[in-house]
Write a structure and sequence with these properties.
The protein is of the alpha/beta class. A hairpin with a 5-residue loop joins β5 and β6. The C terminus is likely disordered.
Length: 386
């Protein structure tokens, strides 16, 4: 099939209003009768209504051209663009609207689905086959855990650090609970529905009643880039503080670290500095940066990471017992993460690696939590059925 990207191939619904002579009323009826984007097999059609000199689709799919211009439906204020996506894809995007020399980046006015983000919400396109995981949604039948706030005085970091503690509904001081330490804990709570995910997975007995320490960095661009003081804070201050207050498993196989992006590097480098402390590691879209297969991206803040990863790649060693890695196929870090997998496996660690048709964002990381947590900390259901 000869198809020009951006325009409508044969058989696509938008063709009904792209013919010469279409009226504004016909466009109104078309828009009112559909949900947007229109998903038809591998084709996703985006529509914008409004006066503009040009409209573009700005998506976050690495390797696929973005800022591609919409086509205007002649004689109307309707614009459209057709994007081809593999099934089970999830893509975040905005529209760039240009009018009288000005540009605006906006959410899709016709799409109610948005993803929160530290830098502002994006519209979301789900291609054919993608479904929002049921375990990410609140369930009235689930007994919720609760959150408690703490402030730790840190000699290692030279100040105080905020900590949020998640205690499961089934927490009991007379039994030992696994401990999970989470980098960027506040972001996991706000943008990855982390409390809901924990409540649901514990209720389903897919993971045990885990106690979670959710950290809040003061400056992640310095604390997370293989920072010795940060690792010392986690291992010599945060973990002992948690163990003194709560009934926790003291063995490494009952302790885990979780982090995404720079938080993934913070988790990995902390485990590398203290290899007998954490037996479980879950890292997502980790900012591995090194120079032996090309020039790294990211700027000066990545220099300490490059030194750390280069040194590790030249002399790899086990940093944990079980390591679960995830990365999105639509993000630039996919190449670095893929290349690390065989190296990590060569150390004898039990490594599981999962990719998704998604980008560098919190809902991608959320959607991988069930598989990662239940593999690292299997609950009674997994022990029986898997």
């Amino acid at each position: 099939m000869n198809w020009e990207p951006g325009l409508a191939p044969p058989g696509i619904a938008i063709n009904a209003i792209t013919q010469p002579g279409v009226t504004a009323h016909e466009v109104d009826l078309f828009v009112e009768s559909r949900e947007f984007p229109i998903v038809e097999g591998r084709f996703c059609t985006f529509v914008y209504r409004g006066e503009a000199d040009a409209v573009s689709l700005r998506h976050w799919v690495y390797g696929l051209a973005t800022s591609k211009d919409f086509a205007r439906i002649e004689g109307t204020d309707a614009w459209y663009y057709v994007l081809e996506l593999p099934e089970n894809s999830r893509v975040e995007y905005k529209f760039e609207v240009r009018r009288r020399g000005r540009k605006r980046l906006i959410q899709d006015p016709l799409n109610p689905h948005v993803a929160p983000d530290p830098f502002g919400a994006n519209s979301v396109c789900h291609s054919a086959g993608y479904e929002l995981p049921a375990w990410t949604r609140p369930d009235s039948w689930v007994r919720p855990g609760h959150l408690e706030e703490r402030v730790l005085a840190s000699e290692a970091l030279g100040g105080k650090r905020r900590l949020t503690v998640y205690l499961p509904a089934r927490y009991g001081p007379n039994r030992r609970h696994p401990l999970l330490v989470v980098h960027d804990g506040g972001d996991y709570l706000r943008f990855a529905d982390f409390k809901t995910v924990l409540d649901n997975l514990i209720h389903r007995q897919e993971i045990p009643a885990v106690v979670v320490a959710l950290s809040h960095p003061e400056n992640r661009n310095t604390e997370y880039v293989d920072n010795e003081a940060h690792a010392r804070f986690i291992v010599e201050e945060l973990v002992p503080s948690m163990e003194s207050e709560f009934s926790l498993v003291s063995a490494p196989d009952g302790r885990g670290l979780l982090g995404a992006s720079l938080g993934g590097i913070a988790s990995f480098s902390t485990a590398a500095r203290y290899p007998d402390t954490f037996g479980r590691l879950l890292i997502q879209s980790t900012s591995f940066a090194f120079t032996d297969i090309g020039e790294p991206r990211g700027g000066p803040i990545f220099d300490p990471i490059i030194r750390f990863v280069n040194a590790y790649r030249s002399d790899p060693s086990p940093v944990t017992e079980k390591l679960f890695m995830t990365c999105g196929q639509y993000e630039p870090l996919i190449y670095e993460n893929r290349s690390m997998v065989p190296l990590l496996q060569s150390t004898g660690m039990d490594v599981r690696y999962v990719e998704a048709r998604d980008g560098h964002n919190w809902q991608n990381w959320r959607d991988r939590l069930r598989e990662g947590l239940s593999w690292l900390f299997p609950g009674p259901m997994w022990l029986v059925y898997e």
